[in-house]
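Q: Please design a sequence for this.
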């Protein structure tokens, strides 16, 4: 599995947790086939850099939740939302009112869910280990 596919698997793992918790509609708000296509088109060198930054955020800095340090798209554009294709596809950047991400957070709140607990560091460690194991298959 190349690093572009690892990034897709990472996002699919997060999407699966969203679908399980909030339903399929909200999984699609978070990660679509168009998003996967963008990740698959990344040059491998860039994909490696993005994947390593995310893995470091998980393993060294113990990050959790849904945040820019754990988002391949934020890493690709170095947190410059105006140039983010993901933000354009999802009706705005993560902090913009009415964006898909904003709607997703509203739903977490409405259901009494805490995204930091849902997407704990342990969740991410397990996800990365599974992705690394799959790459050897």
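A: Design:
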């Amino acid at each position: 599995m190349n690093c572009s596919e690892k990034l897709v698997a990472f996002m699919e793992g997060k999407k699966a947790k969203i679908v399980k918790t909030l339903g399929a509609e909200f999984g699609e708000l978070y990660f679509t086939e168009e998003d996967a296509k963008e990740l698959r088109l990344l040059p491998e060198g860039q994909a490696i850099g993005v994947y390593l930054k995310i893995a470091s955020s998980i393993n060294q800095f113990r990050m959790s939740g849904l945040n820019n340090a754990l988002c391949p798209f934020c890493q690709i554009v170095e947190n410059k939302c105006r140039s983010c294709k993901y933000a354009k596809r999802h009706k705005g950047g993560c902090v913009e009112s009415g964006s898909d991400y904003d709607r997703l957070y509203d739903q977490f709140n409405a259901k009494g869910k805490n995204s930091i607990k849902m997407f704990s560091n342990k969740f991410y460690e397990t996800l990365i280990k599974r992705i690394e194991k799959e790459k050897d298959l």
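Q: Thanks. Anything notable?
A: The longest helix spans residues 3-22. Residues 3-135 form one domain.
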